[in-house]
Design brief:
- Helix 1 packs across helix 4 (about 70-85).
- It contains five helices and no strands.
- The protein has a domain at about 30-95.
- It has helices at about 5-45, 50-55, 55-65, 70-85, 90-95.
- Helix content is about 80%, strand content about 0%.
């Protein structure tokens, strides 16, 4: 094997594995976002202290979590994601059962 072939193989390997890693991250973030939406909807519908927080729930939650990417806007989007796509629950459960997360 010459140097040019070695360089080419490493570049190819790097590119394809980075692409696969990106796909895996996207799948996991999709699952995370759906589950956050699920948790929010469940809490809002059955939470004992929901009346205390009212419309401020997402503000309080976002500030308390202090996690990049979970702003009030993103929490609203996660909730909508779950509301519009409740049917992906079995897929999420399947991924969880396989210890993907």
């Amino acid at each position: 094997m010459n140097l040019d072939v070695l360089i080419s193989q490493i570049q190819s390997l790097d590119g394809s594995l980075k692409q696969e890693a990106s796909k895996a991250v996207n799948r996991l973030l999709t699952i995370r976002n759906w589950l956050i939406g699920y948790y929010l909807v469940e809490y809002e519908q059955k939470g004992e202290d929901r009346a205390k927080y009212g419309e401020k729930l997402l503000d309080v939650l976002s500030a308390s979590l202090n996690i990049k990417g979970l702003s009030v806007t993103n929490l609203k989007l996660n909730r909508l994601f779950y509301i519009f796509y409740p049917h992906i629950g079995p897929t999420v459960n399947n991924k969880l059962d396989k210890n993907i997360i």
